[in-house]
Amino acid sequence: MTSLQALAPVLALCVNCAAQVLLFRRAGALLRSVYLGFFSGLAACALLCGFSAELPPGLITYGALGYCYFHFINLGETARRIRIVRELSEAGPAGLSKEELLGRYDARNILDARLARLVNNAQIIKKDGRYCLGKPAVLYMARALLLMKKLLLGRSAESL
Amino acid sequence: MKTLFWGNLVFFFFFLLHFIVWKIKLPARQTRGLLLVLFGGLAASLAAFGLFPSLSLLGVPAPAGLPENLAVALYVSSLILAYMITYSAIEADSPTLVMIRTIADAGEDGMAKEDLLAALNNGVLIEPRLRDLLTDRMAALVGGKYALTPKGRLFARLFTAHRRLLGLGKGG
């Protein structure tokens, strides 16, 4: 094994990030840029590893790093904690009281953004002013995470 | 073969250790606990490979030399990071997933937005995240106001820079 083969997944991740940013800035479709960036990195990883015994672990390492990058983008897009940190950062050293923070970002903002995304992706359907389940893919994901939460933490909700 | 064998062995051994520790007592700072158990385990394993170069298991010799150890370190680190990111969704309730479950549980009649808002209010969606920021020492409560610590500012700068690079807004 060479050092280049060992470092191939990290170099491929750099290709992934650069391609994703360039593609997004040019075309503006976030999810598409994430997929295309990932596959660019995958090709780079295969080229750097070569068709050798180092290829399978290299691809798994790259896959896991690519998964982390996807979640990094997703955190910036949807995570409440990141949004709160950004609001506090904008407020400067004086900070914000809970009431001031809620004036900028509250449960209604969170709910509205998610309802719009879920309706756009047909995960839920709006019928006579009420929301019903659409495609069940996210429900399966929710149930899988609930099962892991029960297994690992022994509870079904954060507040319990 | 070596990277896959030793990488998986190290990751799953310390993953199992984390599972046992969590069953005995859940750490107050779970992310920090995970970092300690999993990356501490990786560091100990790499030290063992260096100290016992003739180590072998099921006929597979331990990684030797910088490139092989680097490959195992990267393999295990990437799995740890991927698990830690997934763990954050286990630790904290995702509003999207809670909404989907709540709507599914409501059946064919569905749910009105105001009913969802009653179930998912500021006490459920905002306050736990504020408490997390204090627990993880990313923010401090000074005179009734939440202010970022240097760690929190670094975190904010990282995401702000990335989203500025993409030309995106605040998100959330």
Strand % of chain A is 5-15%
Order of strands across the main sheet of chain A: 1-2
| Multimeric organization | heterodimer
Low-confidence stretches of chain B: none
Question: Which H/E pattern describes the elements of chain A?
Answer: HHHHHHEEH
Q: Biggest β-sheet of chain A, characterized?
A: 2 strands, antiparallel
Shape of chain B: elongated
Name the overall outline of chain A: extended
**Structure summary, number of beta strands of chain B:** 5
Radius of gyration from the alpha-carbon trace of chain B, in angstroms:
22 Å
Q: Largest sheet of chain B, if any?
A: 2 strands, antiparallel
Instruction: Quote the distance from N terminus to C terminus of chain B.
Output: 42 Å
Q: So how many helices of chain A?
A: 7
Topology:
The complex is a heterodimer of chains A (160) and B (172).
Chain A: H1 3-27, H2 30-49, H3 55-78, H4 80-91, H5 98-104, H6 107-120, E1 124-127, E2 130-133, H7 137-153
Antiparallel strand pairs in A: 1-2
Helix pairs in contact in A: 1-2, 1-3, 2-3
Chain B: H1 2-24, H2 30-51, E1 56-57, E2 60-61, H3 65-91, H4 95-105, E3 111-112, H5 113-119, H6 122-125, H7 127-135, E4 139-142, E5 145-148, H8 150-166
Antiparallel strand pairs in B: 1-2, 4-5
Supply database-style keywords.
heterodimer, A: 160 residues, mainly alpha, two-stranded antiparallel ribbon, 5% strand, B: two-stranded antiparallel ribbon, 8 helices, 70% helix, elongated
Describe the structure.
The complex is a heterodimer of chains A (160) and B (172). Chain A is mainly alpha-helical. Chain A has a domain at 3-78. In chain A, 74% of the residues lie in helices and 5% in strands. Chain A has a two-stranded antiparallel sheet with strand order 1-2. In chain A, strand 1 (124-127) and strand 2 (130-133) form a beta hairpin. In chain A, helix 2 runs antiparallel to helix 3 (55-78). Chain A is extended and about 55 Å long. Chain A starts with a helix and ends in a 7-residue tail after the last helix. The model of chain A has no long low-confidence stretch (mean pLDDT 91). Chain B has 172 residues and is mainly alpha-helical. Chain B has 2 domains: 2-91, no CATH class; 139-172, no CATH class. Helix content of chain B is 70%, strand content 8%. Chain B is built from 8 helices and 5 strands. In chain B, the strands form 2 sheets. A two-stranded antiparallel sheet of chain B has the order 1-2. A two-stranded antiparallel ribbon of chain B has the order 4-5. Chain B starts with a helix and ends in a 6-residue tail after the last helix. Strand 2 of chain A pairs antiparallel with strand 3 (111-112) of chain B, so a sheet runs across the interface.
